[in-house]
Amino acid sequence: EAAGQSSPRPPVVAPNAYRAVATDDREVRTALNFALGHQKKKNRSDSAVTLLSVLSAERQVSKGDNFRLCLSLDRRGRTGTARTVVHRNQKHQWSVALWAWGACGR
What we know:
This protein is α+β, with helices and mostly antiparallel strands. Helix content is 16%, strand content 42%. The chain has a five-stranded antiparallel β-sheet with strand order 1-2-3-4-5. Strand 2 (49-61) and strand 3 (65-75) form a beta hairpin.
């Protein structure tokens, strides 16, 4: 290091912040499948929503894990996005905390 120059520091991340994870991560896939199953049950239809792709995935560790997913979906013939947050508690029980249509990118 030259005098007066400091090496770049990584950004400070809050302890409970969401962190990006691979969309093909095993736990992301489990959260995804739970969320899709929940949505299909809620709509009483296996064809209500069809996954096109996982656009992004993030994980937050906080009394279990929260998985925040941005999904591209076919919704009865119309393409759209949905943001979902799936929670896994410390007993490894899953629940959908949020399903918001068109909320990706917000």
